[in-house]
Specification:
Number of domains: 1
GO molecular function, one term: metal ion binding
CATH topology: Rossmann fold
Keywords: Hydrolase, Metal-binding, Zinc
Helix content: 40-55%
Cofactor: Zn(2+)
Order of helices and strands: HEHHEHEHHHH
Structural class: mainly alpha
Strand order of the largest sheet: 1-2-3
Pfam families: Creatininase (PF02633)
Number of strands: 3
InterPro entries: Creatininase-like_sf, Creatininase/forma_Hydrolase
CATH class: Alpha Beta
Length: 234
């Protein structure tokens, strides 16, 4: 259930019987022909679909992340690493103070994964808590499903092109883009990254049939739900 559909009394009642919640993390950045909010949309949606049958509350998706590489693309907003880690600290500490002890972080943006390394520091200060960090798009089963469809897939390509990330009136290119030189890209400032990438897609087709995408989505939801049901350490 979405936390925005609850009031404080409902949250208090839930905490009397369970201590689990979901915190989705997104980003606002270029995604070629797709929505600038693609990472936010997908993280929130997979979290909500996974948690709904279990009655576990899902907090609003954090819509900003770490993405300095793409700041030459208008509409991209990046947080500094220190700001982001401080924000994660406040969010997790606040949830812990409320009584949530099992928190599934559903991350939708690769740049946010710096938080995954930092998480051990937070857990050392909160030994009673259990936090799972789940990069939903490249978790083992979901990534295997992507690769089974087409092994040329990356940022802003077909693998993020779902009916709910497309924009009305925007037509995706039809060509299959070769993989950009990632080693070169990582050396460049934002303006150089834009010049190298062009539209922003790293590699592959921009779109694939919806039946393929929905099968991948079902696997992603099931894999995320399994973490909620059976992923907690003793």
């Amino acid at each position: 259930m979405q936390i925005e559909e609850m009031n404080w009394e409902g949250a208090e009642a839930y905490l009397r019987v369970d201590d689990c919640c979901v915190l989705p993390l997104g980003c606002t950045e270029q995604h070629a022909t797709l929505s600038l909010a693609t990472d936010t949309i997908l993280a929130g949606r997979v979290a909500a679909a996974a948690a709904a049958p279990l009655g576990i509350p899902v907090f609003p998706t954090l819509p900003y992340g770490i993405t300095p590489t793409f700041t030459a693309y208008p509409g991209t907003v990046s947080l500094r690493v220190g700001t982001y880690l401080a924000l994660l600290d406040d969010l997790l500490t606040g949830l812990h103070a409320q009584g949530f002890r099992r928190i599934l972080v559903v991350n939708g943006h690769g740049g946010n994964s710096l938080g995954q390394g930092w998480l051990g520091e937070w857990l050392a200060r909160h030994p009673a808590a259990r936090v799972q960090w789940h990069n939903w798009w490249n978790a083992p089963r979901t990534w295997a499903a992507v690769q089974a469809v087409d092994d040329l897939a990356s940022h802003a390509s077909w693998m993020e092109n779902f009916p709910w990330t497309r924009l009305e009136g925007v037509t995706a290119p039809g060509e299959r883009k070769p993989m950009v030189d990632l080693a070169q890209m990582r050396q460049l400032p934002p303006e150089g990254v834009r010049a190298l990438l062009g539209d922003g897609n790293f590699a592959g087709l921009h779109v694939r049939p919806d039946e393929e995408m929905l099968a991948i989505w079902q696997e992603a939801v099931a894999e995320t739900r399994e973490l909620l049901e059976r992923g907690w350490a003793e």
